[in-house]
Amino acid sequence: MKVELKIWRYDASTGDRALRPYEVDVSDEATLLDTLDAVKDKVDGTLAYRKSCRMMICGSCGMRVDGGAVLACKARIADIVADGHIPVISAMGNLPIVKDLVVDMDPFWQKMRAVQPFLEPRLDRATEKENVVSQERMDVIHKESLCINCGCCVSECNSMESDPDFLGPAALAKGFRFVGDARDGATIERLERYSEEHGIWDCTRCYFCNERCPKGVDPRDAIAKLGAESVKEGIDRDMGAKHAKWFVKSAETTGWLRETELVPKTQGIVAAVKQTKFALGLAKHGKVPTPIPPHVAADVGEARALHELVREQGREGALGIVQGERALARIEHTDAGGARRDTPEITPGEEPPSAEG
Ligand code: SF4
Ligand code: SF4
Ligand code: FES
Question: Which residues have C-beta atoms less than 6 Å from ligand 2?
């Protein structure tokens, strides 16, 4: 199969940058990485890119195809060039380029180190015997444990683009891998640390990290679990946490998100007064419903019942999200387009991620 592609070449030592076209013959089964190997072997030996395992496990070969990060050894070239498309291959985003498709991973590892990516054992519960943790308990952090540190999520993170100090999706997913580990004894310290500026509440929820992660880690969901755990533990100083709490409260009481009350309820009266001019401008254009009396949804009973159920069953914090993920995973789609639930129900409240085991 003849393949045409364009590659952004760059050399940080000289500043030379150019988009170069290439054409090579590869097999129909070839991956993007195989194609780059063919370019390097047969056309231009100076092309630089990283690789090692060739089987989606070492995390070395992250790069962009048409502006979106992929693992080169996972992406089939036939899919990329379908219908005569000529792809543009470039280095990952949000990391400095060293040469061609090779980025400097130092900023990635600095963030990773900042979340203390190692177990802080619960020495208060040390025994003479092995500390066995059930499979159920480990399943809570199964997705986050799949991370191969490839950086594809970081490449597409728009929060990190505007704030390079943001901890970012990979490091925060690693953070939940330890917050959710029943053997870890530093849960509160971790949640305090991750809730600071540049932490979990600075995520814009764009979901690009979930979309781009080649291993199904879903880093945005891990950040949501950290947020839920923080609020559950009363670590809610950040405005993001206050907003989340107010939205839960307003949904419970009226079935609606009462955004007009958001500023006074979360930032205080002084901040609300400062925003009066802006609010009046919105009101003039009919964008602000009167807060009194609050508009109550016709089926508000359902929202209240759901809230009560979550409280009764102890599904607050990360556990509710983990159980939601499992419930979705249990839904198997049938040929007829319907859904079938054929695995056992999860027992509510049995496996809190940070509870004592
Ligand atoms: S969802 Fe948050 S962490 Fe993920 S890419 Fe968007 S801003 Fe970054
Ligand atoms: S979370 Fe996914 S995309 Fe991000 S570094 Fe880990 S494996 Fe790669
Ligand atoms: S070469 Fe190891 S993940 Fe692609």
Answer: 147-153, 169-170, 173, 213, 215, 217, 219
